[in-house]
Structure formats: C-alpha cells, structure tokens
C-alpha cells in the first residue's frame, strides 16, 4: 500500500469489522484506494466485490485514467460492456481519454457513434464535455478532419473546445487558414480572450507552416507575457524550416 498510510489502514480495519456491507460501502473503499493511487489494492477490491453497479465500474475506470493505466482502463471498459452495464457520460469521457492516449481510433469511433445514437440532437449542454473528448481523441489519433467536423457541429463550445481544436490544427500545417479563422472567431463571436495556451498553439501552427514572421508579429500583439512554450513554438518552427529569425528585445 502506498506509503503505509495510517488513514488507509484505519479505514480498512473499520471496513473489515463491518458485519453488513452493501455496494455503497464497497464503492467507498474502492474510491479511497484510487484517490491514494493504490491501483493494485483497488483492483483487488473490485475483483472481490459481491455486487457492482455503474458507479463501481466508472470509479475503477476513472481511477485508471488518473493513474496512467490506459490499457487496463480499456480492458475494463470491454468487460463492462460485456456485462451489459449502462455506460454513462463520465465513463465515456474517461474511455475517450484512454483512446486518445493509446491511439485506439476504432474504439473511439465506436463511442462517437454511440453518443450520436444515444443523444442525437438533444441535451446539447451535456454533450459539451463528450464532444471535447471526441475532438481530442480524433486530433490525437491524427484524424484532424474528423475532429474539425465535430467542432463545427457543436452548437455550444467551451474554452476547452477551442483549445483542443486549435491544438489539433497546429499539428496539421495544411489547415493554417482554419486555425487563423478560429483564433480570431473565438474572440469576435464569443468574446473569449485568448489565453497563453491559445497563443502557444497558434504560434506553433504558424511556425510549423513556415510563417515565422507572422508568428513573431502575433507574439508582439499579445497582452500576456510570452512564456517558454510560446518562444519554443516559434524556435521549433525555425528549426524545422531552417530559418533564422532576428528577435529584438
């Protein structure tokens, strides 16, 4: 057990002395282990649970995400599906994160299809986090056109939506015009002030496309102080295209 935490030991003793246990108490023990990063102990608990519900599966899957065990998470998801446990929004977001990390486009596409069939055009507010996860999954898998298509269909996006799509566009230099459009559109149409990560993504997009001068001019217009990521994006593009850029400070 991580660090021999006395709180965990006491909680385990209390649990062991309980004469009546239900799925709620088991889920509490499961969540406790995962909060402390004790994935092995959590898995052992999950395996011996006499009864599991949707919360049990979602807790275990989400815990694997935070612990960086994406392959194990996907395996749990397939077990969950075979057990015919209803998959909720939290579970789908977690699974999409694993798909993005592992590049599992097949599973990601299946979940995208499931979301479309389940929600259709209703409950758009609930779909924001799911759509963000879908965009991230496609962009991470190199299917930027599909990520872009999902983004354009969103009736309501969050700042995460904009960050994700601009980041994805930055990795595909043929979509400079789209990136330029959305960088301006987020401010003009939605009143969202670009954050340092947005500037970094857009500078990266321009630099990768060989537009170092435009990227440098953009940095000059920033109301934020450029950080290492912004300057690194500019220099990275210079290195790719073997260009020298005189920077006067």
TrEMBL record:
First and last residues of every PPR repeat: 22-56, 127-161
Single annotated GO MF: RNA binding
TM stretches of this protein: none
PROSITE patterns, A to Z: PPR
Gene3D superfamilies on file: Tetratricopeptide repeat domain
Keyword Repeat carried by entry: yes
Entry's Gene Ontology BP terms: RNA modification
One Pfam short name: PPR
InterPro entries: PPR_At4g14850-like_plant (IPR046960), PPR_rpt (IPR002885), TPR-like_helical_dom_sf (IPR011990)
Keywords: Repeat
Highest taxon, organism lineage: Eukaryota
PANTHER family reported in the protein's UniProt record: PENTACOTRIPEPTIDE-REPEAT REGION OF PRORP DOMAIN-CONTAINING PROTEIN, PENTATRICOPEPTIDE REPEAT-CONTAINING PROTEIN
UniProt xrefs under NCBIfam families: PPR (TIGR00756)
Name the record gives this protein: Pentatricopeptide repeat-containing protein
Organism: Kingdonia uniflora
């Amino acid at each position: 057990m991580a660090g021999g935490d006395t709180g965990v030991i006491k909680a385990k003793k209390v649990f062991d002395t309980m004469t009546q246990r239900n799925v709620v108490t088991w889920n509490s023990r499961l969540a406790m282990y995962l909060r402390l990063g004790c994935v092995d102990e959590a898995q052992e608990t999950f395996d011996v649970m006499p009864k599991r519900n949707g919360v049990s599966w979602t807790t275990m899957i989400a815990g694997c995400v935070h612990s960086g065990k994406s392959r194990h998470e996907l395996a749990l998801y397939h077990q969950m599906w075979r057990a015919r446990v209803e998959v909720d929004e939290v579970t789908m977001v977690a699974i999409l994160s694993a798909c993005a990390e592992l590049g599992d486009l097949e599973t990601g596409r299946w979940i995208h299809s499931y979301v479309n069939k389940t929600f259709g055009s209703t409950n758009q507010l609930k779909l924001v986090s799911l759509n963000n996860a879908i965009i991230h999954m496609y962009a991470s898998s190199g299917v930027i056109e599909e990520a872009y298509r999902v983004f354009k269909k969103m009736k309501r996006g969050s700042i995460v939506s904009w960050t994700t799509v601009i980041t994805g566009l930055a990795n595909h230099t043929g979509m400079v015009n789209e990136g330029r459009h959305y960088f301006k559109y987020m401010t003009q149409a939605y009143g969202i002030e670009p954050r340092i990560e947005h500037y970094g993504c857009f500078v990266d997009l321009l630099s990768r496309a060989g537009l170092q001068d435009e990227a440098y001019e953009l940095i000059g217009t920033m109301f934020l102080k450029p950080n290492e990521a912004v300057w690194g994006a500019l220099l990275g593009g210079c290195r790719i295209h073997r260009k020298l850029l005189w920077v006067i400070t």
